[in-house]
Amino acid sequence: VRSWILHRSFILSLEHEICSSSSSVRWKDFLFLLIICLTFSLILSSFLLLYLLYVLQYGLMVAAGIAGSCWVAVGASLFLSKRVRCFGVLFVLSCGMRQGRNVLITAGTSLVVLKNVQNTLENITGLSRSMVCNLQAKRVSIDTTPLCNYVRMLRWVGDVLRAFTDFGVAELVSDLEVTSRGDSEKLRERLVEAERTLNGTAKSVWAAVDTLSSVSQRLFPAFSFLLLMGFTVLHLRRYCHDKKYENVYITRTFIHFDEKQKAEGRPPVLPLTPKEARRYITIPYPRLRATEGKAILKFSFPVFIHCLAWVLFIGVDVLMFWFVEVIRTIYVNKAHNKILRDFSYQVSIFEKSCLPKPRLVLYDSILPLVVLLAALLSMSLMSAKLTQIRLVVCEQFFSTNAEERVEFLHAKILKKRSRKKGNRKAEESSLRSLIKKQAS
């Protein structure tokens, strides 16, 4: 409890410095506010510099110039404008809430698709090319081996019959000449056509995947940033214009308003009834409540569903790799003992030169996904508290709207109580009248 009080006092002091106007603070507070604004803008500019250098592949001087200009502009805007500071704080909080969760889930799905699904397609394509290669290598054997066996069989039959042509008086001499000819031109044309079709399909698929990968790597960070900004603006708009939006929290402003109502002789609402305490959340509250636990489960459910989908795609990739690897490992060119007058023949499925070479990119996708899942897990645990912190920040920056929301919530609770009292009185009166009728 003591550590919670110390953390709360530090947060309140930091909140006072950020939420205060730059013209109404002392020089120490002035300097502290300036350092906070410049630090935040420096972090944002550093991410922008890395994005320009390694994603968009800008030159160092150009990227440094853009990032430096962004640092100065954002730092000055944060220091001079209270609303910009509010927007910056809410933007950081949005990165750890539902909007940031959706961005990370999209990033994980894109990673699995671009790594594991692409690798699965490569292994399937390699297996198909290996099959075509084997058919081309075995084309002559498939056409000529059966015919050669038939020729050998006919010659053996001729040698056997020759032993029965000597009748003692006369001898019948016969020569058996058998020749074979195989025409594999149609098979060759079909194999060439199959190889051409396979190469064309693979080329179009890889072109689409490469385009998607390039576009997603370049545009996804910028799109995610703009998406988070849009959600932050939408939250501010709903907070300022919709009094029902997330208005279930008992804050310090609400407590002060209720005390003021009580001092003026008007009906207060505090303390809340047990049923109201389960519905309306008092903040700040150091412990985890049942409603917050439900919020954490609701926040974590999409993460769990997408995690199962990621495991499914990775499992398919691993199974495909295992299947192709088994084909490689079980290939053994065994020598068979020749049996006299055995005219059977064997054609191996795969030639050594045509064996597929599978590839597994498990570590390229598993390690980033582990980092994403760790971030999503921490976000799930902090989601309920971040919602409360976001509400407190909006309350500090928009005090007029906060007072209107408090008045609305206060009147709403009183209205529900009066309605329940009226229903209770009506039930009691009806019960009394019923008792009187039965007594009479």
Give a short synopsis of this structure:
The chain has a domain at 1-80. It is 77% helix and 1% strand.
Overview of this protein structure:
The protein has 440 residues and is mainly alpha-helical. The chain has 12 helices and 2 strands; from the N terminus they run αααααααβααβααα. The protein has a two-stranded parallel ribbon with strand order 1-2. The longest helix has 57 residues, at 185-241. It is elongated. The two termini are 62 Å apart.
**Roughly how much helix do the residues carry, as a percent range?**
over 70%
Query: What does the overall shape look like?
Result: elongated
Instruction: Please state roughly what percent of the residues sit in beta strands, choosing from under 5%, 5-15%, 15-25%, 25-35%, 35-45% or over 45%.
Output: under 5%
Look at the structure and give the mean pLDDT: 78
Spatial strand arrangement across the major sheet: 1-2
Q: Low-confidence segments, ≥5 residues, pLDDT <50?
A: 1-7, 332-340
End-to-end CA span: 62 Å
Series of H and E elements: HHHHHHHEHHEHHH
Helix/strand structural class: mainly alpha
Biggest sheet, in brief? 2 strands, parallel
Rg computed from alpha carbons, rounded to a whole number of angstroms: 39 Å
